Amino acid sequence: MKWERIPVGPIQANAYILSHTDGSCVIFDPGAEGDRIVQHIEKQQLTPLAILLTHAHFDHIGGIHEVRAKWDLPIYLHQQEKEWLTDPTLNGSAYFGGQVIVRHEPTCIAGEQTLQIGAFTFDLLETPGHSPGSISYYCKEVEAVFSGDVLFAGSIGRTDLPGGNYEQLLRSIHDKLLALPEETIVLSGHGRETTIGAEMDTNPFLHGF
């Protein structure tokens, strides 16, 4: 099992492809350039099983239409952000000169649970603060957590968009993400990967909370 990062769109949001040795894969946050993501998967001769969203901001959902035009995949999203897919004000695109609308019905997630999709197993962690329905997907098999815009290398997610809450974000990071093994790779929504241990030691936003 391996992961690949594909920065997409003008904000360079990270889409991820997590693939299994059986040839299947799942797609995290296809935020833009959906055709490019499709071509990458086809080149690797992978069979996608699902789209997993860490949250529903426009730069994480903008490529869904092209991906779904190729494959009829379920879209997993926290139930608190179901309406964000079709509301440019909630998903933030209205503030950045665009109108991102996704009309596909998602499979809504509620509560922390184990999600099994084919050969993939994820522990779902509710990590609100950047947005009300932010989810982090922990995959023990690759010792990685797909954290969206909750935690970055040396930084944390912004909280000045609708539904953001700074104290809640810090609580989510401390209670959920920092509880993971220190060697866990953090695959963030923007920028390079880091580890839980590195952020515990060096992230200035996490000290003194």
From TrEMBL:
Keyword Hydrolase on entry? yes
- The segment(s) forming the Metallo-beta-lactamase domain are 12-190
Which keywords does the record carry? Hydrolase, Metal-binding, Zinc
Q: What GO MF annotations does this protein's record show?
A: hydrolase activity; metal ion binding
Q: Which cofactor does it need?
A: Zn(2+)
PANTHER family registered for this protein in UniProt: HYDROXYACYLGLUTATHIONE HYDROLASE GLOC
What name does this protein carry? Glyoxylase-like metal-dependent hydrolase (Beta-lactamase superfamily II)
Taxonomic lineage is: Bacteria, Bacillati, Bacillota, Bacilli, Bacillales
